[in-house]
Specification:
Elements lengths: L3 E4 L2 E4 L10 H5 L2 E9 L2 E2 L2 H14 L8 H14 L5 E8 L16 E7 L12 E5 L20 H12 L4 E5 L5 E4 L3 E5 L4 E3 L9 H12 L4 E3 L4 H5 L3 E6 L3 E8 L2 E2 L7 H14 L4 E2 L16
Parallel strand pairs: 7-8, 7-14, 11-12
Antiparallel strand pairs: 1-2, 1-6, 3-4, 3-5, 4-16, 5-6, 8-9, 10-11, 10-13, 13-14, 14-15
The structure holds 3-[O-phosphonopyridoxyl]--amino-benzoic acid (PXG).
Length: about 300
Amino acid sequence: MDGLVYVGGTFRPAADAAISVFDHGLLYGDGVFEGIRAYNGRVFKLERHVERLFDSAKAIRLEIPHTPAEVCDIVVEACRQNGIADGYLRVVVTRGAGDLGLDPRKCPRACLIVIARPTLSIYRAASAGIRIVTSTFRRNAPDTTSPSIKSLNYLNNVLARIEANDRGADEALMLDGHGYVAEATVDNFFIVTDHALMTPPTATNLKGVTRETVMALAATLGITVEEKPFTLFDVWTAREAFICGTAAEVVPVLSVDERVIGNGAIGPVTGRIVTAYHEIVRSQGRSILPAPPVGEVVAGDRV
Ligand code: PXG
């Protein structure tokens, strides 16, 4: 593994980047993270991701030993250090090194890790569409570990993904405790009905940055969006469906539980959203280039 990883306050060669075996992020999944992407020399929605990181940390009473602006700067610096203009960024904050024993008071200082890698695809043939199945594992209820917290505890979702793998599907659809559709294992979920784009309210799923972006794009395209609970019946009989997330982007869903969605091809609404998403990610975001000296204007460099 090459490249430089930010850990413990400094950039280190990836092979030497390490955390303590007593870190509660490892021992208890006690920590939070973000997955962010850079396109075309810009980090897309950097400030929003870092804001969500701090929200997740607040929810678990984790003090991040930096300001949001400092974390943004470290993420951009990680891109520069690794020569990344297009890539995937992982920001992790663990509770830090402590001792055996769950009590977070054993961990005096949280640990910030920033990894920058060239992007990896997560679904085979994603742009052609995927097949998904409903998992028997339910998404966390809001009164357990809230699905709004992007925590280091992903076992429920890992189990759902294993189930999908075992059944020969590309991804799992997770329901909430009442049987309403929640989201996929690392992506939010949308359907297209006869009158609108529809996605569940965020009580049962992550407040996805891509989800927000898709909803804003739909508004500019004149597509009605509804946030309301719906069931598997609505999914199976939808005209179109797609999942969306930072890593996957917008991926058409061609079948759910062996029911073909629509006519089994990428639908027109999904197609427009995919195109609009590809355009926006490549044209907005915090520039990775160093800021020009004061007074000097570089055309087209910054939004
Ligand atoms: N739901 C869940 C449970 C997620 O983990 C999303 C929805 C989509 O959210 P964003 O903000 O990305 O639109 C996620 C995102 C990874 C990885 O490497 C995971 C995510 C994002 C990027 C990378 O596993 N999860």
